[in-house]
Amino acid sequence: MNKNIHTFLGFESPYDEADIVVYGSPFDGTTSFRPGTRFAPAIMRQESYGLETYSPYLDMDIIEDAAIFDGGDLDLPFGNTERVLDMIHEYAQRVVSDEKVPVMIGGEHLVSYPAIKAVFEKYPDLHIIHFDAHTDLREDYMGERLSHATVIRRVWEFVGDGRIYQFGIRSGEKVEFEWAKAHTSLTKFDCTGLEKAVESLKGKPVYVTIDLDILDPSVFPGTGTIEPGGITFKEMMAAIGTLKGLNIVGADVVELSPHYDQSGTSTAVACKVLRELLLAIAYK
Q: What is d(CA 213, CA 132) in angstroms, rounded to the nearest whole number?
């Protein structure tokens, strides 16, 4: 691991005492438009010091109410996607085998695939809640089966039908939307139906993957593939709040490309989304 100088929001819990383990996967080797997500984990840690540790949304303090260890970033090689995926899988596998919840900072969305696979191997009844602008259900992208445009299709191959709930989707090929009708629960444009989905998942192991481009570009321009028509920040906060009480056994936040938003707003948004997600996981 590359242990950064900064930890996210000053997390100080030792690994052995932590319930949640944060780690970074700085990889954007299959990004289909604008690269840059590999810089997100380190920059989010640095900029997180502008946030309070207390959340008025959930009435929790992330230092007082959660035991979180920040393991830094994985030292991922350039030019070898399969090796990168193996390394992420190995780290997430170790975390779940130690009875902790792995929470990854991406990186592009493909990094979710090995992380989810590792969690699924421990929890074979795993269900996925997927927030995104894009379907990510292509069979391949330009002939490549491993891509951030195919990640949820690859996940479906091992979790199967009826296990994936997609929200905020507003972009993809027609064939992806048609395919989803038979294989996933896909909600276009917003998070309608999330409360019903959460109710049906109570007591079941859940992995939450948040592609930040679900947010409208007016809120979150710092991403590689901008899609107008997204949800608001308040809607994102409400969605994460709805998740509290679920048995979340793994999660990730992906697709921040910080350098496309020189104001720093997108990074601040990403940090706050991660803070709320961690608190929703820790919620008792």
A: 6
- The per-residue b/e assignment along 48-87, b for 16 or more CB within 10 angstroms, e otherwise, is beebebbbebbebebeebbebbbbbbbebeeeebeebbeb
Cα gap 69→108, rounded to integer Å: 22
Length of the chain: 284
- What is the sign of the dihedral through the CA atoms of 82, 86, 89 and 91? negative
Tens digits of per-residue pLDDT, 122-151? 999 999 999 999 999 998 767 777 777 799
pLDDT digit string (tens) for 178-237?
Answer: 999 999 999 999 999 999 999 999 999 999 999 999 999 999 999 999 999 999 999 999
Residues 129, 206 contacting (CB under 8 angstroms): yes
Q: Is 202 exposed, middle or buried (0-12, 13-18, 19+ CB in 10 A)?
A: exposed
> Where do the H-state alpha helices sit in the chain?
40-47, 81-97, 112-122, 151-159, 174-183, 194-200, 233-243, 265-282
Q: Cα–Cα distance between 82 and 60 in angstroms, integer?
A: 39
Question: What is the C-alpha to C-alpha distance for residues 38 and 77, in angstroms, rounded to an integer?
Answer: 11
pLDDT digits (tens, 9 = 90+) for 12-66: 899 999 999 999 999 997 787 788 999 999 999 999 999 999 999 999 999 999 9
141 burial class (0-12, 13-18, 19+ CB within 10 angstroms)?
A: middle
User: Rounded to whole angstroms, how far apart are CA atoms 206 and 14?
Assistant: 25
Provide mean pLDDT across the span 143-164: 90
